[in-house]
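ingest -> validate -> predict -> emit
validate: passed (alphabet ok, no gaps, 159 aa)
predict: started
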Amino acid sequence: MDPLAKLVAIEEIKRLKARYFRCVDTKDWVGLATVFTPDAIFDLRAVNSVPNPLTGAVEPPISQSDADVYRGRYAVLAMIHAAVETLVTVHHGHTPEIEITSETTAAGVWAMEDVIRNAPDAPPLSIDGYGHYHETYERLDGVWAIKTTRITRLYVRRG
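emit:
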């Protein structure tokens, strides 16, 4: 792939991830469906685990359960819908590191921040998370989509 085509692909993947964040936060389930490949995988085994900056110990330990891995577009969508449908969420992605690995595949790491609150009429809930999305992408019929996602954390504040 020539350098200009790589730059275009990287920009398209950036727009794809921006659409993912917007669709999650606005609860646009139809739009969110267009973000993932049919065989998408969303791995949440490490989403609640945070490394201690002094010891490196991860608490709680990273899950080894396949129940925390969602396979297929509709399983991924159902998980996201159930997780956030009654919450106010704000997701930000920063400083993407995107590598085009072929004409139709790519990999990336995004620094992320998510802010999660209960709806105003619900009991208080406050979670602020920081970490990374580790992803792969596939170009299907000329359009990039997320093939795999794994979230890791650096810090989580609950209040």
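The mean pLDDT is 96.
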